[in-house]
Structures are given as structure tokens and as C-alpha cells.
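Saturday, quiet lab. Running sequence design on the C-alpha cells for the scaffold JK sent over.
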């Protein structure tokens, strides 16, 4: 059986992907809030 050291795996690609996912979520949240504010002012 192969030996394994906990915490030795390279997860830099995963970290970059997760950071991009969080940025996309933030952009969608801010965009949605702006659209709702705009619709509230326009009155549709």
C-alpha cells in the first residue's frame, strides 16, 4: 500500500477555481441587487 502524508497534495488549481467561483457569485449577487433596485425605481 502506498504511503500518504496528510496535507501534501497540491491544491493550487482547486483554490484558483474556488476563488473564481466566489467572484462569479459576488458579481451575480451585486448585479441582481442592482437590477432589483432599478426595477423598484422604474416601477414595473
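Result came back. Writing it out in full:
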Amino acid at each position: 500500500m502506498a504511503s500518504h502524508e496528510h496535507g501534501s497534495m497540491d491544491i493550487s488549481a482547486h483554490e484558483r477555481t474556488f476563488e473564481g467561483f466566489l467572484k462569479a457569485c459576488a458579481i451575480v449577487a451585486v448585479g441582481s441587487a442592482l437590477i432589483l433596485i432599478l426595477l423598484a425605481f422604474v416601477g414595473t
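Notes for JK: The chain has a mean pLDDT of 92. The two ends are 66 Å apart (CA to CA). Ask whether to fix the surface positions before the next round.
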